[in-house]
Amino acid sequence: MNIFCIINLLNVFLLIKTEYETIELKLEDNDFYIPIKLGTKSKDEYFLLSTMLPINFFPSSECTKCKNYHINEKNTEDYTFIQPNVSLLYYYLNFTGDIYRTNITLGTQTYSNEFLAVKDIYDISSYNGKGRYSISFLNYDFNTTNKTFAIYLNSEMGELHLGGFDINKIGEINKLRIFKISKTNNSSPFLYDDFWFINFNYFFIKDIKFKSPSFKLTFDLNTNYFHIPKDLFFSLSYLIFPEQARCQVQPEGHFVCFCNEEYNKYFASFKFMNENNETIEINPEDYILYDNSGADNYCYVYIVLNYENDLFIAGKYVMSNYYNIFDIDNEQLKLYRIKRDDNEFLRERNFIISLVLLLSGIFLFLFCYFIYRKYFMNNQINEEENFDENYMIDGNNNENLNENENVINNPEQINEGINEEIGENIENYNNLDNDENNENIVNNENDNEIVFDGRESNIIN
Predict the structure, then answer these.
(1) Which of 193, 164, 199, 169 minimizes the C-alpha distance to 181?
(2) For 2-338, CATH number?
């Protein structure tokens, strides 16, 4: 019983070890960077995190368009050459280089993985990134029991949950949406252009329905924007941007618009539906970033066109409104929409859970203490009482033994005691005998009866 109580108390008061590992993402210039170690290096390097790429790529020592950081792929201790002259198509960019293999350490996980050492980039004048580290349905190589990872983002930080997901990030489990994913399959060993996606049959914009068996939606943390296929973009721009917002396109491809509470309702909401009537909604708050620093209320509308038709890409601003769970084994993307008041809801729920656990712990403690007092303490008291009784009996026996020892050891006292007792008896007997004789003499005067020493004599007058 005591062991049972201790186990229950430990389960209540100790945190149960989670099955996932949390990797903190560094937020810098609106981009999320992930810390990894390459080869035998002991220092973390930060790379932009992608959830779409089929392979990692890092700037090689020969890349003149790459700035800030280069790997030393010539170091044979850390890097093993695999294949030359490989191309990677990523959005509208074409990265070329050689394939190498190295050990990559992320958190407590170390594994061997191939990557593209970028030598040149086409269709872009300069490239100032540190490379891309990808974790997606296409290249999950971690040795975790649960082949799942999840991404949680907000305006201040980001978290990668490796090997599982945080149930506390989900307010209402019945609102978790689950979608089956598909993959492209490029068999060329010299070209990496595969990606994963969710297939949809219908696309809605402001309740206008479009049907196509080839609509695809993917999620990539490495882009800020919501990418719309170019044909749809040009034909539906009048529905996407309200005329009152006076939107202007920027060199990067997104738009700056005039926004206020009246105009915001005119921006488009998008909805995707598959054959099972499962839907994903992308609302204006998912792609609009507000700037209220000036006298006029401007906003950045992070919508850009995608040159590949039928492919929609949801970037980090859309992903930041969801808790994104990538289930590798089941090939499912699970999305839970984070509401504006979710944080408050989660705080209240966690407080209630903590309070219930605390009260349960107190109850268990009192229950265990009561059981201890009732059974263990009573047994101890009974043992002490039995011990005291035995001690008293032993004590009396010892006193009697001591007296007997004194008697045996002092024979003179025995004789004196016997003589005194005999003398007292004789004296008592004589006194008793005299009293009886006197009484008989008085009582027998009229009866002419005299008793001497117990003998009777009759005197006849």
Answers:
(1) 199
(2) 2.40.70.10
